[in-house]
Amino acid sequence: MPMSIYTELADYIDQIYENPYRIPHDESRPFVKIFRRLLSEEDVKAAMKLDDHGITAVEFASKTGFSQVKAEKILDRLVKKGISFATYKKDVTFYQLAPFCSGILDFLLKDGLDAEIAQYIQDYVDEINEFINRPERKKTAVRSVPINVSVSAVPYHASFNEVLSYIEKGSIYSVSDCLCRSAKEKLGRGCGHTIKDICIQIGPYAEFYIRTGRGRPISRQEVIEVLKKSEAEGLFHEIVKPQNNESSYFVCSCCTCCCIAARTVIPGVVSRIESTSIYIAQVDADKCTGCCGCIDSCPVSAIDMETSRIAINPSRCIGCGICTFFCTSQAVSIIKKG
Ligand code: SF4
Ligand code: SF4
Ligand code: SF4
């Protein structure tokens, strides 16, 4: 089948962001289908004039030959559709091409998400898992962080600081709904975990979310409250660093049933790759009564009973700390990997 402008755009984004799971796109690939659904020919041609460096509407106009008014109109449309990410310095807006994830996928939440797009997102998860099981796979940029209140072997403040250190990297914060759970819900397969106001953005991504109506501004204190509320729900946090912005972070509160990042990085859930967490659970054999109360709590099935002893599988454990909530004997703790 000849290449369409949509496959060209998908290949172009892979090339710009050096996607480690890159294979040439064709019409069957999820992002090509998403682009075909959402973008006009003019949108695609304009998007291919952008790259991973922000440019102003004036620069875009001189690059494309459009009038400045038309350039602004097209760029704003690309931002609205989630193909372009914008940063803001004083009164000037800088536009760049967004990466697939975190980026275009996440930006779909505001206007682009319906059942058809939600299905393409699930297809994307399947596709990524097929890729990351290939021998040439690379490590992910996602890392889980233990839930604060569960840490004992690591001093409480160390865990708190782990999360806080990311929060402190920014001076602006936003909160948005959870894309992954929204997408599953659109398909009638929602998991019941909180969707509304749970994903945190920090730094330039927060400003982008606020200015484009994808999120609402919140204070640092409110960020901490959102995180604590999600911990109480048994969700675990993931820090996601967008590829195109050094000073932005997502702090997500995830479940393994829906989270795209978790479903593509957690061993034993969908695919088997090494955990990137720097934390791991540890069982104190002297305190453990062998009640098995922790086994079913583990979102990645990392706990098992082996010859009458509870064992943590180190290649599966993501150090989320959820099991510590379920151990009434305080026999499980979270430690930093050696
Ligand atoms: S990464 Fe986690 S919190 Fe963020 S959108 Fe996905 S499931 Fe929701
Ligand atoms: S054993 Fe399971 S629940 Fe406990 S920290 Fe590891 S991944 Fe989380
Ligand atoms: S819940 Fe605690 S005491 Fe019970 S098996 Fe697990 S670690 Fe041991």
TrEMBL record:
<protein>
    <submittedName>
        <fullName>Electron transport complex subunit RsxB</fullName>
    </submittedName>
</protein>
<dbReference type="Pfam" id="PF13237">
    <property type="entry name" value="Fer4_10"/>
</dbReference>
<feature type="domain" description="4Fe-4S ferredoxin-type">
    <location>
        <begin position="309"/>
        <end position="337"/>
    </location>
</feature>
<dbReference type="InterPro" id="IPR017896">
    <property type="entry name" value="4Fe4S_Fe-S-bd"/>
</dbReference>
<feature type="domain" description="4Fe-4S ferredoxin-type">
    <location>
        <begin position="279"/>
        <end position="308"/>
    </location>
</feature>
